[in-house]
Amino acid sequence: MDYRVIEGAGSVWYKGSGKTQRFVASGDVILFKELRIDGVPFHEGVNISSGSTIADISAKAMETLSVGKHTVTFVYADGEASADFSVQKKLPPPTGDAGNPTLWFLLLILGAAGVCLLLRILPYTAKRRK
């Protein structure tokens, strides 16, 4: 048979994300025999369900994989379907710094211009009060 991985091919999973990784193959779950990662049977933390063949791999099981490129293979009684995916290091947490340096520079210039303007105007207003 000509089976294909129809979801999860080319995906990227991040260590520490706590997310389940899903792969879906086009074969009938009745003919499904086992799931392999990098040619090795992978059973721990894997939940197989129907709707084609859906493999949900727990975050705990995904954490056991090394950083880098891997191959998932669905093995059926009459064929296989394989696809590559990657495991990456955990992304750094967002800093919340979404500022625009140009905007901050312009605000700094406007603030300095305002101070200069005040310093020029204050001596004249002081003379008028006398």
The CATH architecture category of the largest domain equals Sandwich
Class computed from helices, strands and strand pairing = alpha+beta
Supply the CATH superfamily name of the largest domain. Answer: Immunoglobulins
What is the CATH topology classification name of the largest domain?
Answer: Immunoglobulin-like
Shape: rod-shaped
Spatially, the strands of the biggest sheet line up as 2-9-8-4-5
Average pLDDT works out at 89
Number of strands: 9
Helical content (DSSP H or I, runs of 4+): 25-40%
Extract low-pLDDT stretches: none
Tags for this entry?
130 residues, alpha+beta, Immunoglobulin-like, five-stranded mixed sheet, four-stranded antiparallel sheet
Explain what you see.
Strand 6 and strand 7 form a beta hairpin. The chain is of the alpha+beta class and 130 residues long. Helix content is 26%, strand content 37%. The longest helix has 29 residues, at 101-129. It has helices at residues 59-63, 101-129, and strands at 5-7, 12-14, 21-25, 32-37, 40-41, 46-50, 53-57, 68-76, 79-88. The strands form 2 sheets. A 5-stranded mixed β-sheet has the order 2-9-8-4-5, with no helix packed on it. Strands 1-3-7-6 form a 4-stranded antiparallel β-sheet. The protein has 2 domains: 5-88, Immunoglobulin-like (Sandwich), CATH 2.60.40; 99-130. The chain starts with a strand and ends with a helix.
Topology:
Elements: E1 5-7, E2 12-14, E3 21-25, E4 32-37, E5 40-41, E6 46-50, E7 53-57, H1 59-63, E8 68-76, E9 79-88, H2 101-129
Structure at a glance:
With 130 residues, this protein is α+β, with helices and mostly antiparallel strands. Helix content is 26%, strand content 37%.
